[in-house]
Amino acid sequence: MAIPVSRRLDFTEIPVIDLCELVTGNDDPVTIDALRAACRDVGFVYIKNHGVAEGLIDDVLAASREFFARPMDEKKAVQVDERMRGYLPLRYRSYEGEDNAAQSNQEGYWMGPDRPLNPQNRLDGPNVWPENGEALRNAMEAYHEAANALSGVLARAFSLALGQEADFLPNLLNPVTQLLKVNHYPPQDNPTEVSDIGVVPHSDEGSFTILWQDENGGLEIESKSGEWVEAPPIPGTYVVNLGNMMQIWSNGEFSSTPHRVINRSGTDRYSIPLFSYARSDAPIKPILNGAVDDPDADSCEVYQLKAWRRIFPIANILEPA
Q1: Residue 203 domain-assigned?
Q2: Assign residue 61 a region: left if phi > 0, alpha if psi is -120 to 50, beta otherwise?
Q3: What is the dihedral of CA 87, 92, 98, 101, to 10 degrees?
Q4: What is the pLDDT of residue 96?
Q5: Is CB count within 10 Å lower at the N or C end of the chain?
Q6: Exposed, middle or buried by CB within 10 Å (0-12, 13-18, 19+), for 259?
């Protein structure tokens, strides 16, 4: 399934939206309208008053710093598996962008819903944790639970912003398959090739991403003219960006915008993204705005396995059926 063509976006800044009303259960039309405009015009938005406790972020950062400082052989003992759980090695070869393979100057740790292996959904499986990794496990599990609750608020809000019933996206996303990742970017003084930066230009393949970033910056998004626009850290906020699934479902109404990371801060950069995917059997095809039915559309399981096989060959992703 090719991603439906979306309008190339012309923007100079990313809006900041107060989520307080939505978090408290009020489908405030002013907030919904602001989200609709951001999703159509930018594909990125900052959110504040999101309800996730600062201490949960602090715990993930402390535990991940300890893990990433370990010797490489300890980290590779829990290298990312075929269900995207575990350690993604520093400077792994990535096929995330449209061009040929690139080196990502990043390392990460992935976890998700801890479920038994399931032949009906090959995205399911147990999490992988390092030896003496209780602090990392406890911190990531607690944060995952809180961020999942926020993703539910956003899924309802995005449904209303699309002019649908409030359960439109929750029905596509549940049971939840959100994956949590913590990233570490060593500093880069002056990278000269796009194929050798923190993360190459790409669009996320899921429905939407909730990103916490530290004070060091480095996230950039691409405008209509091809200009790279900074998305600097704003204390107390998340950056939320739409992914390819959302652009496909909305038939191009909502935009999945290219972005990249270059850590020019001179110090280590950390970020914590939560990637929201559809339920395993959800169809990945246009379903709004007069979309033509596609009986051959991939399920989320197949779509996601294809994407991961392309992006992360190091993980030995299972062959889609």
Answers
A1: yes
A2: alpha
A3: -150
A4: 63
A5: C
A6: buried
Joined tokens for residue 92: 């792994």
User: Of 187, 190, 158, 183, which Cα lies nearest the Cα of 172?
Assistant: 158
Identify whether the C-beta of residue 125 lies closer than 8 Å to the C-beta of residue 136: no
Whole-angstrom distance, CA of residue 225 vs CA of residue 258: 12
Mean local confidence (pLDDT), 247-265: 91
Q: pTM of the predicted model, to two decimals?
A: 0.93
User: Is residue 5 a part of any domain in this protein?
Assistant: no
Number of domains in the chain: 1
CA-based radius of gyration for the chain: 18
Question: Which position has the higher pLDDT, 269 or 312?
Answer: 269
In 3D space, the residue among 28, 275, 294 whose CA is nearest the CA of residue 173 turns out to be 275
* 8 assigned to some structural domain: no
- β-bridge pairing 107-111 and 86-88: antiparallel
How far apart CA 57 and CA 223 sit, in angstroms, is 30
Domain membership of residue 230 (yes or no) is yes
pLDDT in tens, 141-182: 999 999 999 999 999 999 999 999 999 999 999 987 899 999
Three-class DSSP category at 57: helix
How far is CA 10 from each of CA 229, 244, 262, 281, rounded to the nearest angstrom?
11, 19, 22, 35
Instruction: Give the domain extent around 77.
Output: 16-315
pLDDT band for position 227 (cuts 50, 70, 90): confident
The SS3 assignment for 110 reads strand
Q: Tell me the CATH number at 74.
A: 2.60.120.330
- Segments of the chain assigned E as strands: 16-18, 44-48, 86-88, 93-94, 102-103, 107-111, 179-185, 199-202, 208-213, 219-222, 228-230, 237-242, 259-261, 269-276
